[in-house]
Specification:
The protein is mainly beta and 144 residues long. The chain is 0% helix and 55% strand.
Amino acid sequence: MTTDTIATNAPSGVVLDNGSYSSSVTIASGITVGDGTGTAVTAGSSWTLDNQGTVVGGPVGVGLYQGGALTNEAGGTITAGYGSYGAVYISGTNPVFVQNAGLIEDDTGSGLIINSLQTKLVNTGTIIGKYYGVSAGGDDITVT
């Protein structure tokens, strides 16, 4: 599998689609994606995202809307700052795997919102939300 790397700051955020990136994307350490005004990273189909940098969303930091995998590495940060959504928002019917060793935080909503089927979360980092760290509303969700 080919992995594309986002190696320059992207203040307007990124939309993961086949025209711009392969299905596996890494946000490099020291890179900031988003400026806190909109969704920083949007994936409308199944994607693999490895965050080593900083993702700053408004209502959503990372939105995985049709499955995939998200790894937030130690030192990686995903935040959102306004609205009732989450720093990470997951929905859809495809399987999702989330591994967090960094920080996921939303000071106005929930850190991680899961509204999907077959989601596995492995957390060794920190997930913080104003209302919930993790809000789960889907089926077949495993948290370790």
